[in-house]
Amino acid sequence: MTEIIPVQTGRPYDIHLGRGILNDIGSLAASVARTKKAVIVTDTNVGPLYGAQVRASLEAAGFEAPLYAFEAGEASKNMQTLLALYSFFAQSDLTRADLVIALGGGVVGDAAGFAAATYMRGVDFIQVPTTLLAQVDSSVGGKTAVDLPEGKNLAGAFWQPRMVICDPDVLHTLDAENIACGMGEIVKHACIRSQPLYDQLVACDDLPAALPAIIAENVKIKRDVVEHDEREKGERMLLNFGHTLGHAVEKCLHYNGISHGAAVAVGMHLITRYAEKNGLTPVGTVTQIDTLLTKYHLPIDCPLPLTNVVHAAQNDKKRAGGNINLVLLRGIGDAFVHTLPIADLPAFFGV
Ligand code: NAD
User: Fold this and answer.
1) Is 243 a catalytic residue?
2) What is the mean pLDDT of the segment spanning 197-207?
3) Distance between CA atoms of residues 115 and 35, nearest Å
4) Sorting pLDDT into bands at 50, 70 and 90, what band is 231?
5) At 34, is the secondary structure helix, strand, or coil?
6) pTM assigned to the model
7) 23 Cβ contact list (under 8 Å, min separation 6)
8) Residues with Cβ within 6 A of ligand 1?
9) Is 277 a residue of the active site?
């Protein structure tokens, strides 16, 4: 069964979610396309798995569908890949009326999305997320970017897709580490917005069977937040729960040896533990979070001395001005922003 989830951003679009829906990509794309050309952008892992299927569906619907696959991995989310994409678009005679199809995880979605946002001042694109993280998080909300040597996601744009096509069946080829990574964002959504989702995750004893419904629920949570705050001026900040310290952990480890999901898990644990100590979150909340993180194979222990992590977070945010916004919980499903002078961050964590 296919579910259609509308997103009312400045440029509205629908998320089509359903098992096996990848085979319908041609007819779905045709429903929003202005021409019969669609460039598929993917990576070297996803291309061999799903490229031919997507291309066949597009061609059956009358599209010319050239495919470009860049080397899989975060290291490819950079300016060189962006330039290669622009060249491929130009060589494929892509015009502003045509389509870009981003087929892959968050790296493909972010890089292809930014290429689409900037090529000829903006080409329509369709997100076809193939990781759990991309399905529940990065494909919804219109943030696109590439990394610079100086930092992650520094060059980017808000560019809403024309459509998102989300097929949970593609997750059967995803490895356990990437499933856990997506589960980190799902736990985050439950923590900030939904006690029922939290309860469902605690009770769940067959994740693969439950995933399509869980994905739909998470897409709606992210959709609701993004609709209220498309450009991250307020409410969207809540999606950063666990990310301030999570990013700091990733940075200290030079983005090596810990996945983003694992780092966010550690970040959610730490921020809640210390919010409890500061009397800002009810005691017992961190135990509730830990229960889920552990169940879904995510870490809670910080792999580095806390002092190093807190100082990295402090340095990172110094550029943003005198204050830091911490996302804390009043309880499961109820997040709020606590603003603190950056200089007070070490005291908050008792370091
Ligand atoms: P990823 O795109 O690198 O995918 C992880 C790995 O899984 C890659 O090796 C990929 O080739 C492989 N893969 C993808 N789909 C597969 C499938 N179905 N079967 C087998 N292998 C598959 O990483 P990710 O975790 O999806 O995304 C991380 C990126 O997302 C980061 O760059 C992050 O900054 C970005 N992100 C963006 C947003 C946003 O709002 N735009 C939000 C969160 C994260």
Assistant:
1) yes
2) 97
3) 19
4) confident
5) coil
6) 0.96
7) 53, 57
8) 43, 45-46, 49, 72-74, 77, 104-108, 110, 130-131, 133-134, 137-138, 141, 143, 153, 170, 173-174, 178, 181, 260
9) no
232 catalytically annotated: yes
145-172 confidence digits (pLDDT tens): 999 998 889 999 999 999 999 999 999 9
Could you tell me the CATH superfamily of domain 179-348? Dehydroquinate synthase-like - alpha domain (1.20.1090.10)
What whole-number distance in Å separates Cα of residue 102 and Cα of residue 11?
Answer: 18
Among the listed residues 189, 193, 243, 251, the single catalytic one is: 243
Residue spans of the domains in the chain: they are: 3-173, 179-348
Among protein residues, the one with the nearest Cα to ligand 1's atom 40 is 138
The CATH number of 3-173, from 3.40.50.1220, 3.40.50.1970, 3.30.1330.90, 1.10.150.120, is 3.40.50.1970
Atom of ligand 1 at shortest distance to CA of 110? 41
The whole-angstrom separation of Cα 118 and Cα 122 is 5
Q: Is the pLDDT of residue 318 over 80?
A: no
Contact 112, 76 (CB under 8 A): no
Kindly report, residue by residue over 106-152, the tens digit of the pLDDT. Answer: 999 999 999 999 999 999 999 999 999 999 999 999 999 999 998 88
Residue 143 annotated in active site: yes
Is 222 noted as a catalytic residue in this protein? yes
For residue range 295-304, what is the model confidence (pLDDT) as tens digits? 999 999 999 9
CB within 8 Å of 297: residues ≥ 6 apart:
176, 180, 183
Name which residue sits closest to atom 29 of ligand 1, judged by CA: 106
Q: Ligand 1 atom closest to Cα of 45?
A: 11
